[in-house]
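This section describes the prediction task in plain terms. A model, or a person checking by hand, is given the sequence of a single protein chain and must write out its three-dimensional structure as a string of tokens. No templates, partner chains or ligands are provided. The sample shown here is typical of the held-out split.
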Amino acid sequence: MPEKNLAMRNSDELLSSSDSLIENQDSPSLEQINYKKKQQKLQSKSREKIDIQEHQKAELDLKNELSMFGISLNKKEINSTKNNKIDKNNELSVTEKIKNFKEELTQQGKSQSEILQILISKFENEEAVSTWVENWRSFQKLSVFAESKPPAERRAIENIISKADFTSENAFATSLSQISQSTEISNATKLEISREFNGAKVFSVDDLDNGLKQQQTRKTEIESAINNKSREKTALNSDIENLETKLEKLPLDDPKRQELETKIEQKKGVLKQTKSDIITLEKAKPKEVSFGLRSGFSAKLNNDGSRSIKIIEADFAIKLPGNFLPFTDLKNLRSINLSFPYRALRNQNIANIIFSPNIENNSVPTKRNRNMSHLILSTLKIDDSKILLENDISQLNKDLLRLTSVKNGKSAEDKFIDLGIFDIQSQSLDKAKFRGILKFIRENRGLDDDLFFEKLEKL
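The expected answer:
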């Protein structure tokens, strides 16, 4: 841009000089006229050079931008695109840019899954749009899920995804609502989607309770449908038996035999379909009332009415406190969020050092353990005022892996003792030193392992 301004200024000064020279004479000489024409030609060439430079810069910017999205355009396509895109690019909001990118990728023939992957790759580290990215991950997972369904259902789901507003925080929840109301998607598939994706719109204790209620309702509906189909099967068997008895009593030449035989065949056809429906419904009926909360975790309604967060890989559950009394939301929320650091530490065989008393399977965590979980999350600056999101859990896992990763072949417990975090005689944790190590981990997230451990040894 400085070169452009300098060239423009020089050419303007030259023109101004020639103009003033001519204005100072009533009858310009041939020499003056030629001088002015020469300067105007120089000015024109200067402007043309600037235009070419701007043209080339715009072309390069567009290539770089589109390459980030996996799009490659030829020269002709760039020329037809840049004029209505690049000139406006700086004026567009993030929302408008994302919508434009989605539209361009759609026109390129990209599938919904490809579009979502491109958007995730581009914006996954942008804190300002982290909620949108979570939605996009859910949409991508839903798109993959749809591929296993019959063509009609797959098209219905993909159509709903294609019409979603990717810049709305409620986009995925809205699409799930549309799926639940669709007449093109079977109840069995709706139940699968509900169980698999309900967690994507669960951020609070109330959300979790509502999700479990929905699963309970769907389970009840399926059980009711099975009962109705079973009654239909019984009635059909009875009808067929009665018709066959009548048929046996008719003479072989009785004209009514044909009519009865037709009715029997029709009833048998309906009976066959009814039996098939019952099998389908039985397969769709969930064994338990639960839904996927986060990757590797599910929310479950127990037979006694209590609720648990299940760590799927470990077949281990954190039971939530009862919610019949007022002011229990915080206890419930912290119990839910406790399951995330507990899994990470359990996988490192260090959970029993951090949490005391030990957390038993399907038991309600003590206040002391809930507070320890809060200490871990708050020190790492992970927001636990709501149920942790996938990206929060991912960061938590990385942080706690560094807490328990050790050098020199020492066990994690020995490392804790060396750092003064754990006193072997009293079998207790020094919370102040533990908090300090967590803070150190948070402040040094960008370091590679070697440098991180080198600094840690100096503490």
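For orientation: Residues 205-249 form the longest helix (45 residues).
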